Amino acid sequence: MKARGLVVGAVGLGAGVAAYASLVERNWYRLRRVVVPVLAPGAAPMRILHVSDVHMTPGQRRKQRWIAGLARTEPDLVIVTGDNLAHVDAVPAVLRAYEPLLDLPGAFVFGSNDYFGPVLKNPFGYLRRERRHVEGPPLPADDLRAGLASAGWADLNNARAVVKASGRAVELFGVDDPHIGRDRYAVVSGPLDPSAELHVGVTHSPEPRVLAAMASDGLSLILAGHTHGGQVRVPFYGALTTNCALPRGMARGLHSYDGAWLHVSAGLGTHPTAPVRFSCPPEASILTLVPR
Predict the structure, then answer these.
(1) N- to C-terminal Cα separation, the chain
(2) How far apart are CA 272 and CA 285, in angstroms?
(3) Worst-scoring range by mean pLDDT, 63-77, 92-106, 125-139, 249-263?
(4) Does residue 243 contact residue 267 with C-beta atoms inside 8 Å?
(5) Are strands 221-224 and 198-202 parallel, antiparallel or unpaired?
(6) E strands along the chain, which residues?
(7) What are the tens digits of pLDDT across the range 185-206?
(8) Would you state the pLDDT for residue 188?
(9) At what angle do helices 141-150 and 91-98 cross, to 10 degrees?
């Protein structure tokens, strides 16, 4: 009887954790605030809103309202690091969520889930270091691109641009998603624009080869997503995986990387086939840049 009670208790605990991870935490959006000492001495602070991995479906109205409410943080610049879509009909929902932010200076790159829809797969496959990417049905990435670009946001998929934020020039270097081999940093790399006060790299997946190239070019800040912060984190251990070659200890947050600052967003959504988060709430981030 005692053994049976232990089994029942374990099953009940497991069911409770699963319910919490799938029904509570994955919808517990929060705003992370980070200070980055990256500006020149004497420069006024600058605020960047970093949004990533929204994985939007049309019916996620609460998520859309929460993202729209981020306009109240009054950022100087908005950077989106990909995986906006999770449904073929989600482009209007994403643009509705971003609408209050589209009046601000902004830029974006795409992730694999902006191009390809969700495919049912074994969630334990994410723990394998090497695994084959499976493409789902095509998603309307070009429609999303047109909607963001028509608002004036810079398309940084294998491109660079200079944008004005709080009256200052910021040079942005971006790549298309390295996770599926679409990055072409060689066409972006080159001498920094001396008229810009800040040089920022933008990528969806924080693959070390891309991060190293950006840092080598002298970019002082790099923004990435993709990892979901590990999505499931074990207390006293951290992320089980980053789903890329980035070390587990860098799955989310601010880190020093080859002389640059790297900020990895844990993202706001989950892949529809693995709708759980544990010890890793969904997030967007306000980065307050201050003098070194």
Answers:
(1) 64
(2) 22
(3) 125-139
(4) no
(5) parallel
(6) 30-39, 46-51, 77-81, 106-109, 154-155, 159-165, 168-174, 198-202, 221-224, 233-234, 238-239, 253-257, 260-264, 283-291
(7) 999 999 999 999 999 999 999 9
(8) 98
(9) 20
